[in-house]
Amino acid sequence: MTDKEQNYKQQTIATRGGYQRTHENEQSEALFLTSSYVFESAEMAAKSFSDEVEGNIYSRYTNPTVRTFEQRLAALEGGEQAVATASGMAATLSVIMGLLKSGDHIVCSRDVFGSTRVMMDKYITKFGVDVSYVALADLSAWQNALKPNTRMLFCETPSNPLSEIADLEALSQLAKKAQALLVVDNCFCTPMLQKPLQWGADIVVHSATKYIDGQGRALGGALVGSAQLMEQVQGFLRAAGPTMSAFNAWLFLKGLETLQLRMQAHSANAAALAQWLLAHPKVSHVYYSGLSDHPGHKLAKKQQTDFGGVLSFIVEGGREAAWRVIDATQMLSLTANLGDTKTTIVHPATTTHGRLSDAERAEAGIEEGLIRVAVGLEDLVDIQNDLELGLSLL
Ligand SMILES: *Cc1c(COP(=O)(O)O)cnc(C)c1O
To answer: What CA–CA distance (Å, rounded) separates 326 from 346?
Structure first.
């Protein structure tokens, strides 16, 4: 990004940051669908390969469209550098493969994304990296889980589906003392609502698949942090290959342009739906950090500019009642995905959290009557009417 661009306000960076127009003078960002690049001479090829000159060699290493996305996202998160990945999980994999080694230990929040847990437990541990899990909002649990070989604290805040909030400033202090890195999955908030680096996190993880695309079209991910850390991660990506496709980078670039407006609209719809559910006689509890009695409300207010689009609620009557409400909807999409313009609904206990044992589920607070809604951008009245179809049956 140029110096002038660095001084732009957030929404200007989101629409224009990181892009250099080509000789064709296009208004919209060009999409470079090319796997490799040609050199001017054999000498330039040699210099490119030996890093004497900067330049594109192959799209597993660099691609102009992917680079534009990386620069724009890095600027939005307030980080020096970003690296784009094939998916959110590829981002999490890359941060671990690039920065940790056998014998290291990770402390991870218990309620991370399901595949993050599977990857840690089944694959990362296979290479001699140990993982301990703690409750996201329990600072003393984080403190007690630290070991001399702890090199990474990994968390996702707000948590899914109960909207618990981690104290990022406190966690970053713990991490610094332990000489470990604080890595924060910022998928639910995006930089438009929360900038973890500002609170002392070292690295931000994204699934661009969710709000950054925002329209349910493509898989992608990214990491943001210091140039020094990102270089190490990029080394792994270049060698191993879970890089972002140029086409997806182009979609995500366009997603960033409207991200702020969408996050505000998702948050406004979710806040209004949370209030409506709270007043509903068939709903016994609503989990949304925007509600003033939510245990994470104060913290969310401090470190976020709004509360996001995901909420969950409990209906009396357990699994049977929850399934009845879900099955009675006619408009909402029954899918575990989130961050879409279209509202999605899911029963966590039997889907996203179905792999957990009964005891683990109870510990995580995932009740049988719990329903998660990732509130989209439809008219609120239609979302309410669709939920009422099932709620009125209870
Ligand atoms: C979806 C998701 C991921 C994984 O991202 P993919 O793009 O599906 O690989 C990671 N973290 C969170 C919080 C997610 O919601």
So the answer is: 7
Contact 380, 332 (CB under 8 A): no
pTM: 0.96
> Rounded CA gap, 169 and 343, in Å?
32
Please identify, by atom number, the ligand 1 atom nearest to the C-alpha of residue 89. 9
Amino acid at 331: M
Q: What is the pLDDT of residues 281-316, one digit of tens each?
A: 999 999 999 999 999 999 999 999 999 999 999 999
CA 113 to ligand 1 center in whole angstroms: 6
Using the atom order of ligand 1, give the atom closest to the CA of residue 220.
Answer: 7
89 Cβ inside 6 Å of ligand 1 = yes
Q: Which tens digits make up the pLDDT trace of 136-174?
A: 999 999 999 999 999 999 999 999 999 999 999 999 999
Sign of torsion over alpha carbons 199, 201, 203, 204: negative
